[in-house]
Amino acid sequence: MFIKNAWYCAGWDYQVSQGKTALIARKIAGERVVLYRKLNGDVVAMEDRCPHRQAALSMGSKEGDELRCMYHGLKFGSDGKCTEIPGQSNIPERACVRVFPVVEKDNWIWVWMGDPLKADPSLITDAVGPSHPDYNTRPCYIQIDADYRLENANLADLSHSSFTHDATIAMGWAQALAKPQHKVLPRGVKTDYWVRNVPVPKFVEHMFPPGFMCDAHFDITQTVPCNWILHFRVFMAGTATEGESDGMLVLDSWSCQAITPRDERSVDYYYSWGVSKATDRPGLSDLLKEGLDEAFREDKAMLEGQQKRMEEKPNFKTFDIAADAGPGKMLWVLDKLIKEEASQSESLIASMA
Amino acid sequence: MFIKNAWYCAGWDYQVSQGKTALIARKIAGERVVLYRKLNGDVVAMEDRCPHRQAALSMGSKEGDELRCMYHGLKFGSDGKCTEIPGQSNIPERACVRVFPVVEKDNWIWVWMGDPLKADPSLITDAVGPSHPDYNTRPCYIQIDADYRLENANLADLSHSSFTHDATIAMGWAQALAKPQHKVLPRGVKTDYWVRNVPVPKFVEHMFPPGFMCDAHFDITQTVPCNWILHFRVFMAGTATEGESDGMLVLDSWSCQAITPRDERSVDYYYSWGVSKATDRPGLSDLLKEGLDEAFREDKAMLEGQQKRMEEKPNFKTFDIAADAGPGKMLWVLDKLIKEEASQSESLIASMA
Amino acid sequence: MFIKNAWYCAGWDYQVSQGKTALIARKIAGERVVLYRKLNGDVVAMEDRCPHRQAALSMGSKEGDELRCMYHGLKFGSDGKCTEIPGQSNIPERACVRVFPVVEKDNWIWVWMGDPLKADPSLITDAVGPSHPDYNTRPCYIQIDADYRLENANLADLSHSSFTHDATIAMGWAQALAKPQHKVLPRGVKTDYWVRNVPVPKFVEHMFPPGFMCDAHFDITQTVPCNWILHFRVFMAGTATEGESDGMLVLDSWSCQAITPRDERSVDYYYSWGVSKATDRPGLSDLLKEGLDEAFREDKAMLEGQQKRMEEKPNFKTFDIAADAGPGKMLWVLDKLIKEEASQSESLIASMA
Ligand code: FES
Ligand code: FES
Ligand code: FES
């Protein structure tokens, strides 16, 4: 089940270019979408399905701001309306492709999959993208063959980092033992916590003095469908006040992650980890990127194994632990919004009856 | 849904040879078929399924004119009857494989998938095969993972050539703007039209004088299940009379295409494009073959994309354009014959009750 | 359908080692199983499914004799009980993994998939494993994508050897013409027969004098789910008494084969063919191994073709031949035991109602 009235990330802005062949095919929440740029640079998102005979519009041809289906040549404007049927003057009303609202923000392209009248850009999560002047950030990508609900649960509880990412980005057992505060938002969950007096993750250890201990602050905003924005700061241990940022800062970074369900069992995962120019040092950004890449391969293996097992035993009885508080809240919000949408369309149908 | 009482192409004649291992496995209209040649050269087609335990007879061994299942050694005559059970003298009545009528014609092997009593060789489409003395023709093949109905629609409307085959075999927009006449036949559709005063397709342009313009005549017979025979002639522009062949002929060619559904969503596609020896020139046959190969890869991509989308949204509402007249007629004939078969077997059942 | 109260082979003993990463994942009769060795060498078999969120325990980490799930860090003892939830002192009762009884015997690891109280080690088939001092034996493996019932039928009737293994391990038509005696056992079938005055299999022919003829004795015990133990002895023709072993022995060998269904349509096949040191000769063991490897690739092709055809036409009517006596008996025993299990659990449910 997907929430329809939500912004879904369709990728990094650089992926949709002006070239003739730049028709990008995506699957978002079960729908096929084709993306392209108009001459003025605006991105258009349409259903990737010709209304004539269901050919792939992403196999079509961009002509100026319009898109021609290269099966039988119907041409569509960026508003989805058919503008030409070769050899025929009459154009039927229904020769029309569904068009989705699009916004570019922080180097991500966002597509609204629900009622266009409700497409409020202020609902798009704030992020720090690759073109932010103060951070060194590179865009990354991975595909994971698992339900985006499993991703939501994964991201809403960083305790797994101590185990799944033991050899990569974990800070020992610090995250497993932390007691994060989760605050429910209208469309997500806000999570905030410190880990104190811990070593830096193994893979960056050699960049710090031997025995260096730190305090780290996690400030996370997670929103539907599955976006996850982390402001991650590291201070010399003992120098930072709770709730404030007045310590000796050794790393100021943002990790911005947008996970888009392709269908019920696979996701497109767009992520980055950017270090502030003020706290970056030679090789650090590269190292963080590699560490995160490797960590996401660890997640991929874990989640795909979990997905297979859940499909095999859908009624298997599980139990909760303390660390499930965050995932529980995030999935509760998601389910609540999905249910509200369902009841709204039911009452709409009832009012029309 | 398949028509059973029809001849299906099982491949090129050279593919079934006399060698010991020459047992060719095919899937035709959902049925597994094994083909081999008898000592006198006749081709035998049997269900590729041993009646004993359903092993593949195509993994068997040819012994003279007979076929031995190499699981437990049962041997079957070319009439399908079991002739030997090793170590056992009694042979049960039902030890019998279904045999299909076979005809070789124009270098294609044709198999009748329905009631053998109705297998009328005069229903086989006429074609110009590789061994025709007047044409230089080579046999080609592609597999396409799409419903043969989509292939029928594709071939019954060449307007798609102007778009899908834009970079290969198209003659500009000429085919999209042509107004073909479609005549319904008892088992297919006959299509006839001219395109006038157009450039030759890009990929053969360099073989003609700069700016060379031509008139081209398409004479097409399409028959069930999905056979398509085109007599394609090109004249110097302005020299040919409508309906006649009296102009300055620069290309006389046949493209013969037999598409056999393997199952509901994949086809075996046997095709050729042969140029008359009188109008061939060095390299032209090769070029046409390569052009057609490339065009069929274009079709393959388009149709497989369409197939996926139709499976995802089987109830998606489409609309028709003028170019759909040919496909509409062809699919109407096909559906009519399928329905007639169904009602005949129903009335047969009723008469026996 | 599987019999649950049975020992299933989970592989060769050397496959489960002491290393940190030595968590072996298997699928046995539809259940996911993870195997590891304790410090004392005992093998533990657990369901490969964390009770917390269904992550793969085989992606976990061995800590002493315990297994930690590396998703959220729950640790389980070798009895399946959770011993630690990081950051939480309370451990719920249901934090428990299913554990399966394990026995190592003759270099195979055996897992009991049913009621642990019924796990009687005396039900494990006797075999001659690679570490048997009197035989030169190497462990082999193949995966076959077919129902284990088809494997049972294949092994219960060696007549197929004369055809399927014509070019490899067959002794001409001798096995097809033999009249094996099949005796039904409580959990399998015992089969015993001689073939007399036949050439040795083609692939070992060059190891014997030209024209060498032999008598061969097959002594087979086949048990549920699908284990097959053959004592295979070859004598100089005419020197051995029926039922006795008093002839001129030229080959004394055991082929031990344990076939474990992964699910309803694939099996893990662990097999060996070992020659007594007394009758081995340079190169013979290697040759037999290669011959058997090749024969099992022949079986794989045949059974997978059969499997596909049975899925396509599940209601296809087949018929029996004399050679089906063995397979018929073996499948009858298997079905009987499966049915008995089903009725026992039904009466258990009834008695509790
Ligand atoms: S399917 Fe797009 S124009 Fe026909
Ligand atoms: S399956 Fe063909 S002989 Fe048994
Ligand atoms: S799934 Fe194993 S600890 Fe959570």
UniProtKB/TrEMBL annotation, chains A, B, C:
<protein>
    <submittedName>
        <fullName>Vanillate O-demethylase oxygenase</fullName>
    </submittedName>
</protein>
<feature type="domain" description="Rieske">
    <location>
        <begin position="7"/>
        <end position="111"/>
    </location>
</feature>
<keyword id="KW-0411">Iron-sulfur</keyword>
<dbReference type="GO" id="GO:0051537">
    <property type="term" value="F:2 iron, 2 sulfur cluster binding"/>
</dbReference>
<dbReference type="GO" id="GO:0016491">
    <property type="term" value="F:oxidoreductase activity"/>
</dbReference>
<dbReference type="InterPro" id="IPR044043">
    <property type="entry name" value="VanA_C_cat"/>
</dbReference>
<dbReference type="GO" id="GO:0046872">
    <property type="term" value="F:metal ion binding"/>
</dbReference>
<keyword id="KW-0808">Transferase</keyword>
<keyword id="KW-0489">Methyltransferase</keyword>
<keyword id="KW-0408">Iron</keyword>
<dbReference type="GO" id="GO:0032259">
    <property type="term" value="P:methylation"/>
</dbReference>
<dbReference type="InterPro" id="IPR036922">
    <property type="entry name" value="Rieske_2Fe-2S_sf"/>
</dbReference>
<dbReference type="Pfam" id="PF19112">
    <property type="entry name" value="VanA_C"/>
</dbReference>
<keyword id="KW-0479">Metal-binding</keyword>
<dbReference type="InterPro" id="IPR017941">
    <property type="entry name" value="Rieske_2Fe-2S"/>
</dbReference>
<dbReference type="GO" id="GO:0008168">
    <property type="term" value="F:methyltransferase activity"/>
</dbReference>
<dbReference type="Pfam" id="PF00355">
    <property type="entry name" value="Rieske"/>
</dbReference>
<keyword id="KW-0001">2Fe-2S</keyword>
<dbReference type="InterPro" id="IPR050584">
    <property type="entry name" value="Cholesterol_7-desaturase"/>
</dbReference>
<keyword id="KW-0560">Oxidoreductase</keyword>
